Amino acid sequence: MATGQSDESSRADGQDIHNLVQSVVTAGQKIHLPFIAASADIGDPSPMCGPDGKPYAGDVFKWFDPDLDYWNDRTFALRSGFIQAARICSEPMYYDGTTLKSWRPIEALEVFNQNAEYETFGVKAAIVCPCHMPFGVLGVIVWATNEDLPDIADIFDQNAERLHILTLKLLSSYRDSATVTTPTETRDLTRREIQCLRWAALGKTDNEIGTIMGVSVPTVRFHLVNAGKKFGVHGRAQAVRVATSLGYIGGRKSA
Predict the structure, then answer these.
(1) What is the C-alpha separation between 243 and 181, in angstroms, rounded?
(2) Count of alpha carbons within 13 angstroms of residue 123, beta-carbon side
(3) Exposed site from 34, 69, 89, 141, fewest CB < 10 Å?
(4) pLDDT tens digits for 82-104?
């Protein structure tokens, strides 16, 4: 009985993902951005695949350049301006043929536009939706065209919210279905553990952390080791990485 329910649930999940994939395609066709590039994890060169094991890219997600097999290019994420922009901006953005913009002025994008020397691979207009997921996973969907689209700003204003939600739903669902490892159990950190991790993230040594917090070095190490155990990792570097990806540390310059 349990196995049957599990199989049925798995099939339902697969159908949901298939429906979302089709929704992504349909959405692009309706707004004159019919070409799609998608990745559920830009740090993983493996392409998004359907239940049959075939990549969605090139089959379901069409691209205007038949010679650009981006899903087989391990350097694509390093060369694509859209993916580089998604690393620094979590909000939907659009490309008007010259620069990347969003629904509001974003300083990070303005700096990016001034300094970017990345490839656009023939794209004339696009909407880019990043998907920042737990544990530092970053996915992206790009809706694009190789033709001029003068009203791309209006198209973005009218559709960005819907496309962003669609991106979150597809990439999060796909990521969950494709992940074979057991998710890390969520366990709360103590205030001391968080403080030690924050100082460690700022490059402080155990001795320095002990002096700042007024505790002994063994106590600092105890808290860092405990935090790592709760995350299921070994070493302070790994503990800091996971803590950062889960929002325990943040971007401020002091603990």
Answers:
(1) 19
(2) 29
(3) 69
(4) 988 999 999 999 999 999 999 99
